[in-house]
Design a protein that fits this description.
Layout: E1 5-6, E2 13-14, E3 17-22, E4 31-35, E5 46-47, H1 52-73
Antiparallel strand pairs: 1-2, 3-4, 4-5
């Protein structure tokens, strides 16, 4: 169920309607674009971006490469 939010166009409390929805992948989160049913103003996009476990995996692999490169040069 949708939660009530304030419109960034008319500044009134409203229940948002879905304008567009992009499905997520195993590596990214889904994005949802809402609009205000009172004034029709588009709201900020919710969601999206890289999933946290992907970011952590990239950091761990990067650290592993840096450490092994450093130890190899010694």
């Amino acid at each position: 169920m949708y939660q009530q939010m304030n419109c960034s166009g008319c500044y009134k409390a409203m229940l948002p309607r879905v304008l567009s929805e992009t499905a997520g992948t195993p590596f990214t989160q889904k994005k949802i674009q809402y609009f205000c049913p009172l004034c029709g103003h588009e709201q900020a996009e919710m969601g999206g971006g890289i999933r946290p476990w992907v970011k952590k995996t990239i950091i761990v692999i990067g650290m592993f490469v840096l450490v092994t490169t450093f130890l190899y040069t010694i």
